[in-house]
Amino acid sequence: MAGRFYRDNAPWLAAAGLMTFGSSFGQTFFISLSAGGIRAEHGLSDGDWGAIYTIATLASAAVLVQAGRLADHLALRPLVIGVTLIYCLACAAVGLGQSVWVLGLGIFGLRLAGQGLISHLGQTATARWFNANRGRAMAFVVLGYPLGEALLPPLAVAAMQSVGWRGVWGIAAAVLALAILPAILALLARGRRRPSGAPPGEGGARAATGMDGRHWSRAEVLRHWSFWALMPAVLAPSFIGTVLFFHQVHLSEVRGWDLATMAAGYPVYAGLSVALSLATGRVIDRVGPVRLLPFFLVPMALAVSVLMLPGGAWVWLAVLLGIGMSQGVVVTLFGTLWPTLYGTRHIGGIKALTVSAMVVSTAVGPGITGLAIDAGLPLPAQAPAMALWCVLATCLMAVVAARLSARLGDRAADAPATAEEG
Questions:
Q1: What DSSP state is assigned to residue 74?
Q2: How much is the pTM?
Q3: How far apart are CA 163 and CA 333, in angstroms?
Q4: Among 173-177, 185-189, 342-346, 414-418, which is the least confidently predicted range?
Q5: Tens digits of residue pLDDT in 233-255
Q6: DSSP letter at 110?
Q7: Can you give 128-193 as a three-state secondary structure string?
Q8: How far apart are CA 220 and CA 216, in angstroms?
Q9: Alpha-carbon gap, residue 61 to 22, rounded angstroms
């Protein structure tokens, strides 16, 4: 049955998966590979570079709040074309720009079109296309994230040795324009049936309602307690994960870990994230996403707690394992939670709010923790605060999950409403 689902829906799953994979060039883990070259080329200190990155990311989050709503009103194919064009221009600006202003605009474009919009379109389309197997579908689509984390860093580092860091951004633009975009458009050539209330060009399963059997508007979501109660747990993985990756050089220095040994743990991190993502999708299709809320931050809490322990690079591996487990669950969990709670008719605008909030957390996280490091508090000493955040958020999620389950009734425990999915 599972094999038939993936086979019958392969074009749309692959298209959305390419969107999440394609977002890699705008993610912190990829951009940071060029940090040394960027600082040297533009004469930037660590603080200058961090400030540019933070300002550009915050600006992209502000724009994303409104731009993300386009997914509710415009067809997917032209949106993907437009976003990819902006993405390519941003890669060119970073790779070719000779001034700090052009660099800043390039980083803004990478964070908006890359980290934000292209992955937002893939997950939003998946949430709208699938109901009965939404968890399984989302688990497949979000595999693009760990796949990019596992494959692209070693390829980029190797490319830098031959074409330099600027050349890498030219390659990124070429891959987006000549490989990823044509593949997505070819996969989307066969349209799905359009559900009631979906934007032009959307199709697949019928529109699914949320709590109270209706479609929630973005304004209604912002006024409801559930959205704000979920935010502490929603923001923890993006904040903590970005902080740990952004400051990995600092960790290697204060703990005496070899960077090459630390890098060797990333394939394990990516593999565990993939396994947990797929497993989470199957569990969600059986019990719904709400029941997983009190559990997904537990591995992350343990991971940052381990960071406080003395020891060799095995400590970093243990941290990666815990982070990978939580990240594997969270990308599938929240991709399915929002349509379950609020319906699919306005899901683009609703998800834009959550994505923007997470983008903000990835912007302020490195800055806040960097200031603490400058003040004499190394990252391992900051780990108790991050672990406490996870523990308190987990306790809050236990209460929130109970209230949401009561509000959803039987739908909280069952798979999403059945629909035509092949």
A1: S
A2: 0.75
A3: 39
A4: 414-418
A5: 999 998 998 888 877 777 888 88
A6: I
A7: HHCCCCHHHHHHHHCCHHHHHHHHHHHHHHHHHHHHHHHHHHHHHHHHHHHHHHHHHHHHCCCCCC
A8: 6
A9: 19
